[in-house]
Amino acid sequence: MDVSVLELWPRIVEATNETILMVGISLLLACLIGIPLGIALVVTRENGLMESGPVFNVLNVIVNIFRSIPFIILLVAILPITRFIVGTSIGTAAAVVPLVFFSAPFVARLVESSLLEVNKGVVEAAQAMGATNWQIIFRVLLPEALSSIALNLTIATIGLVGASAMAGFVGGGGLGDLAISYGYQRFETDIMIATVVLLVVIVQIVQMIGNYLSKKLRRL
What we know:
The chain crosses the membrane at residues 20-43, 55-78, 84-107, 149-171, 191-213. The chain is mainly alpha-helical. It has helices spanning 9-43, 53-68, 71-77, 79-86, 92-116, 120-128, 133-166, 174-184, 189-217.
């Protein structure tokens, strides 16, 4: 039996809210993990503020391992961890766990890239003025890189939107789950088109916000 977009509209709205919730929570947790990790990768690397080969190598390997695993495989591989943390392997809450595991290392790399773009002369000037390493990190590196970080976090957010859709394959909820349940399994083409359009709209809004914040944070 065919189901129209209009008939399914309440479910579409609910799925959209689930996607936004999943992406929002996952991004917040990924930033809480990924930003400090990205800072650590910069300051412990060779010629960094707190150079430490062993620490950098360990962090670098960990990030590379998680970055090299496709999300759909990671999603299935950490199901036992997901069940342990949230008590279930299906639903919006369960989807957040693999999304954080997937996006935190990505955020770390993006933050690392942004911080490495900061002019070394600015850092050297701060050191010459007697600033401590922590002062340089929080008063020089991060403020100088804020615009780039905002733009890179926009990229991470858009990646999370796509990953949240893939979570629908294992009952993760959101627009991806709706697209698979109706658009793929029941061959409801109009439902599939509606979910794709909504995902495109979400991505466009995220990109606009990211561009605006990056412009506002850019240091002249």
